[in-house]
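Provenance

Sequences were taken from public entries as deposited. Structures were produced by running a predictor on each sequence independently, with no templates supplied. The record for 1,2-phenylacetyl-CoA epoxidase subunit A from Deinococcus radiopugnans ATCC 19172 is shown for reference.
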Amino acid sequence: MTQPNSHIAPNETAEQHAAFEARIERGEKIEAGDWMPAEYRRQLIRMISQHAHSEVVGMLPEGEWISSAPTLKRKTILMAKVQDEAGHGQYLYHAAETLGATREGMIDALLTRKAKYSSIFNYPTMSWADVGMIGWLVDGAAIKNQTMLAGASYGPYSRAMVRICSEETFHHKQGKEMIVAYAQGTPAQREMAQDALNRWWWPALMMLGPHDADSPNTGIMSKWGVKLKTNDEVRQEFINEHAPELLEAGLTIPDPDLHQDADGNWKHGPINWDEFWAVIKGERGLGQERLATRQAAHDDGAWVREALQAYTDRQRAVAAD
Ligand SMILES: [Fe+2]
Ligand SMILES: [Fe+2]
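Predicted structure for 1,2-phenylacetyl-CoA epoxidase subunit A:
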């Protein structure tokens, strides 16, 4: 029988859990065919599919700017970046499939709003500088989170993260290079960079998730070696790196309470969590439009899925003969 506050399912034993946790303790990776608690599998599918959806929906805000890039160099960089995000979605959907999730089920959960994706991608991209600011801050925040997840106990997730992080590093660098250039450019460029920072700073802090006290899944996922740091710890790392660099670039961070404590940590003012939840639920921002765009892309791709199925059926029929 399941005990209160226990993650042991009715068909699992305390001994199985102890052996599983001992493996994690020894630093072993858990692989797809290994025994694992049902709750570990369920939480990982939730996390990895949510992460995959974020990569795929994350192509939309920046993709809108490909045709308006100011130079061929910036355009080719942006095209490569958006294409990378599609690849990240693919690695992650595959990682979730190793746990028994199906592609159809995950896509359906996204399109019917049963699954979440990162709140950050429901914000509009208002100017070209947003592309640079997303690279610097959003990819920068993603790297902090993903570097932590590269050490996760589930092998397929951890290995996907190692590969993704190296590409995110390029995304981060191109964004920083662009914003630093504009911050030191003409008055119009400086204004564009500052305006982008004003709009993206707080959403970037929020995308690292609710404060630890409001993050119910953190406890068991850190015990099982998936989340090796809490949301607030990752957010602190992000601010400590980015606040001094943004200031050094000559920009103003839109937080009057921001300051560096004696211990070296940069402290932020209160975060507007009402906005965070409203954006995640699609009550504010572009949630409806983003999903409508994904739905249209899914519908447009129906013939590809049908053709693949017909090809597979034919191959099977030939093999059976
Ligand atoms: Fe990515
Ligand atoms: Fe990225």
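The radius of gyration is 21 Å.
The first strand starts at residue 259 and ends at 260.
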